[in-house]
């Protein structure tokens, strides 16, 4: 059975109501003013990083892979009244990305636990800034509204580099500025220990497994700042984490680790 088509104007109005978003003044690199999307708590979302994107999920926000999806996919989601977040790995090198040769071997550390991925030396801002800028340009050119930069907590891992909290703060703020310079919102991925220092630099948060590791209260600075927290669990059942998520104001769901189309929202 084909899905029932909702008239565009009605769907757009519904989306505006559901997202409870505001426009944050910003400026693009050419100096023109732009309205940056600001998702508020209470915004349902879908996170799909594997397989062909299922555009039929009735939520106002999608988070999808920036490399693997075309401008046509983003445009389709926009026609349905949705905001779209561009997933990028900004903390590790990935052998399977088209720009993998732009990273010199000296900037690659130990594996991050995923096949074909190695931690980046985030101390090297002048080296990494133009590479990440090109990736953010790609997201903007495809029409994405925001960026989800992954692995922003390298300093807490065994990367092979002597990274400090100060190195991470500098890198994360550089990443946030790259998004804002292009008129896009940006989310802080995990990095719970640095939320107090970074909540003003980021427009929302994306978190994995805070219920499993008993860390969800650490995300409340975003909620208090009226910024959405997009949260997923992989192992903890909904009936266990959803009451806590609702009490804290998180926008939560359970996903498979493969991050395919399946979701079980609170």
In total, the number of strands is 14
- Spatial extent as radius of gyration: 18 Å
- Write out the CATH superfamily name: Aldolase class I
| CATH topology descriptor | TIM Barrel
* Total helical segments: 7
CATH class: Alpha Beta
Q: Structural class, please?
A: alpha/beta
Largest sheet properties = 9 strands, mixed
* N-to-C series of helices and strands: HEEEEHEEEEHEHEHEHEHEE
Share of helix, binned: 25-40%
- Strand arrangement across the biggest beta sheet: 3-4-5-9-10-11-12-13-14
Q: Uncertain regions: pLDDT < 50 for 5+ in a row?
A: 1-20, 27-33
CATH architecture field: Alpha-Beta Barrel
Structural shape: globular
State the separation between the terminal residues, measured CA to CA. Answer: 27 Å
Estimate what percentage of residues fall within beta strands: 15-25%
Overall pLDDT metric: 91
Counted up, domains total 1
Protein described:
The protein has 266 residues and is an alpha/beta fold. The chain has a single domain (8-265), classed as Aldolase class I (TIM Barrel, Alpha-Beta Barrel), CATH 3.20.20.70. Helices cover 28% and strands 24% of the residues. It has seven helices and 14 strands. Strands 3-4-5-9-10-11-12-13-14 form a nine-stranded mixed sheet. Strands 6-8-7 form a three-stranded antiparallel sheet, with no helix packed on it. The protein has a two-stranded antiparallel ribbon with strand order 1-2. Helix 3 packs parallel to helix 4. The relative contact order is 0.14. It holds the Pfam family Glyco_hydro_114. InterPro entries: Aldolase_TIM, GH, GH114_TIM-barrel. Residues 45-262 form the Glycoside-hydrolase family GH114 TIM-barrel domain.
């Amino acid at each position: 059975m084909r899905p029932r088509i909702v008239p565009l104007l009605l769907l757009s109005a519904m989306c505006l109501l559901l997202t409870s978003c505001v426009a944050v003044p910003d400026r693009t690199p050419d100096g023109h003013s732009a309205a940056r999307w600001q998702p508020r708590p209470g915004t349902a979302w879908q996170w799909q990083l594997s397989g062909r994107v299922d555009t039929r999920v009735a939520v106002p926000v999608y988070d999808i892979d920036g490399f693997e999806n075309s401008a046509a996919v983003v445009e389709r989601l926009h026609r349905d009244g949705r905001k779209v977040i561009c997933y990028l790995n900004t903390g590790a090198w990935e052998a399977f990305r088209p720009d993998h040769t732009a990273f010199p071997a000296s900037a690659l550390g130990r594996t991050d636990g995923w096949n074909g991925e190695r931690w980046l030396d985030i101390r090297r801002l002048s080296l990494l800034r133009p590479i990440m800028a090109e990736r953010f340009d790609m997201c903007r050119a495809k029409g994405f509204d925001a960026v989800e930069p992954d692995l922003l907590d390298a300093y807490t891992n065994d990367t092979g580099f002597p990274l400090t909290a100060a190195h991470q703060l500098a890198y994360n703020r550089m990443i946030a500025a790259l998004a804002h310079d292009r008129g896009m919102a940006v989310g802080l991925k995990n990095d719970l220990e640095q939320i107090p220092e970074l909540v003003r630099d980021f427009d929302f948060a994306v978190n994995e497994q805070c219920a499993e590791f008993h860390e969800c209260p650490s995300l409340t600075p975003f909620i208090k700042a009226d910024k959405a927290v997009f949260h997923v669990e992989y192992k903890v059942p909904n009936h266990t984490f959803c009451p806590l998520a609702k009490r804290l104001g998180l926008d939560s769901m359970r996903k498979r680790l493969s991050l395919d189309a399946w979701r079980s929202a609170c």
